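Continued from yesterday's entry.
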Amino acid sequence: MPIDYAAFGYAAAVAGGGILGYVKTKSIPSLAAGILFGTILSYGAYQTSQNPRDCGVLLGGGLVLGGMMGYRYYNTGKIMPAGLIAILSAIMIVRTAIRGITMPMKTE
């Protein structure tokens, strides 16, 4: 199976956003959340690269992160970073779900 570049890019954007949040505002929660979710999403991207139907971790991580950031966007109205991550998460959730449903089963 080919590498799931979009999922790895999403994971890198989340981790990079956490690091950027720490650098700009010294926000330890931003750093911790970015690294934690970036790691979870990276593992999910690895799994979907091995088998596109094995998308539970990537979907779960995207749903939790998207829900949290969507809630933050709803409360603050700020597009950066909450709105952007909520939108990216929604795109990745739909993409991963469609990809997981339409890909053939992996035979070993």
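--- second protein ---
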Amino acid sequence: MSKKEKREYYIVDKRILPNSIQNVIKVNDIVQLEKISKYEAIKRVGISRSTYYKYKDFIKPFFESGKETVFSVYMSLEDKPGVLARILDVVADTGMNILTITQNIPIDRTSKVTISLQTNEDMLRKIEAMLENITGLEGVKDLRVIGSN
């Protein structure tokens, strides 16, 4: 990347990434979880070393370790009683601090909600599970993480 090129960052669902990028993520996960060498993990995943080293510096987990993280979740919800309450129960069970909740007036029986959450490094691994639990709730049409610090 030249010095004149401006870096741009995106939040992308891992499922749409090419296999080579997903394999680099797998290597990083194996190295971190199993405490083995990168070389061993690369062999296990079955990618070339050149592919790994080409992309490794450009891939970071969204919820990387840090002291505190604030992030926002945007959701489309069915306009039914109790949907938001069930979401808040899932968040409360995770122990995260809700900073703001913004809910728009429903249009076509769909409400748009943005929740800003604060978490600490002890909870970072619970976030993905929490988001999956929310996505699986009845009445949740769409969920997107729209930002973090």
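The chain has a mean pLDDT of 86. The CA atoms of residues 58 and 77 lie 34 Å apart. Will compare against the first tomorrow.
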